[in-house]
Known about the structure:
single chain, mainly alpha, 16 helices, globular
Amino acid sequence: MLCIVTAMTNMCALSVYIVSPHIRDALQLRADAFGLLLSVGLGAGIAGSLSAGWLADRGHMRKTFHAALALLIITYATCSFPPSYVRYLIAFTCAGMANTALTTLASVGVTRAYPEGSRKPLTWLLIGYSLAGIVGPPVWGYLFQVFSSVFGGARSLQVVFACALGACALAWAILALNPVPARVAGTGTKKEDVQPGDIPLLGLPLVLVCVFAALHASADNAMFVWIPEFTRTRFSPQPFPSSWILSGVAAAYVLGRLVLLSTPDKLRDLTVITAVAGLSAVLFMLAFNSPNQYLMAGLYVLGGVLLSADYPSIMSYTASMFKRGTGSALAITGAASAGASLLVPPLVGYVSEVTGSLVTAMMLPPALLLLLALLAFLRKLTEARGRAPT
Length: 390
């Protein structure tokens, strides 16, 4: 149920990006105003993730689920009126907050439902999320074309958002008919006392997990923004269609997570995190230095296959470390990932301007991810030697 609801809301969120060029045309926006409109949801998403995790830890998961879906419905209802920059800015802020809140709540729910090991259930959740990312763009693009031929440009935007409203209302109905169980929601259960072995929420372990999550987002998700420009400048005058690369990575995420489902349960989350982070970082670095655009695309997609296993393993590892405060721990980890996705694209642009090389700038995030993976591996190797009998 959680997988279906989050997949549907993610598919609705994609409608904004698919029709964004037509929003710019309808409002005649400058580039800076248009960029703010598209990025404001990412910043609000950090607040949505943190607040949802905090509320989930205090037994308010059900209420927060319904509140987030209600906020999405109000948002798309607002966008169904004639286009307005201020209205869209407020609506996209609320949508970014609600969508990340729903994703965080779904992740917390899955880890509570499978306390003995949540890597594979989380993988199924993210597969549904990825499938929505594959199906959503062509569906919204087709609907906009159909509505444009009937209603015209500006009016068709309103109809597309009305369709998104209907999909969110359907997701809300599914949630109402299949309420979150009390054990998963954190209600109806006795609050556990603090145990001597409990790891404090705010400490070095969570910091390290957040760094992994942030660099994971930096090495792949945030790079999506620069792939079209990278292929255009590096492989001019006949660049490979960047849309094929991005679609290939989205499909690779599904493939990689299906492979992750076949891994043995005894394989530790930290082992998966370290291995796939290091290998995918190497593939990304080779891709960005490749002289052939087809080889570059192949290496980049293959890196996506490997890195797709990283995020569910990070979330599962986080949940296993923090039995108390799971919601807040997952929310902080997700916020670190979202923050990196927000900050890294302009950082890459800045490094590119300073160095005069986009290749150098694109190499920075995977290089940092590789460094972190090597440090984690060396630390694990040192601990293993320390435990070995002398």
